[in-house]
Amino acid sequence: METLYKALKKYVPRVRKDKRLLAPPARTVDVYSELCGSKLTLDAEIVDGRVADVGYRVRACSLGQAATAIAAQRAIGMDAAGLARVQTQLEKLLSGSSEPDAPLDWPEVEIFAAARQHSARHGAILLPFVAFQKLFANDDAPGGGATEGESV
């Protein structure tokens, strides 16, 4: 747990202040975790199917904040398939079903293995990934734009 707390101290301050993007060109989605009440508004500019810029408003526990900080930094340049792959790796890590020493596209998400036993917090950790899925889905839809909230 000490490793987790050190990592949280590193990542959480990165998203304490909101960083919003203008719409358009950015698209916006709101997601929340029903179990813990964590909320995330994620803005992303998607150009040629890849994340070009990320903004956010995070009202989540430290785990949700850290996940958002990591995703906001690492998502730049990624497409929907790459982000979905990272989400699947994280879900397996949280559920304990990942192979031992399985490589992670984003090694820093390994910190969330310490939250495996706290399933009520898994939704907060997954918020940025659910938000990116929705943003990419809306990018493919005619008109794109803002979307209604979705729970995790």
UniProtKB/TrEMBL annotation:
Protein name per Swiss-Prot or TrEMBL: Iron-sulfur cluster assembly scaffold protein
Organism annotation: Novilysobacter ciconiae
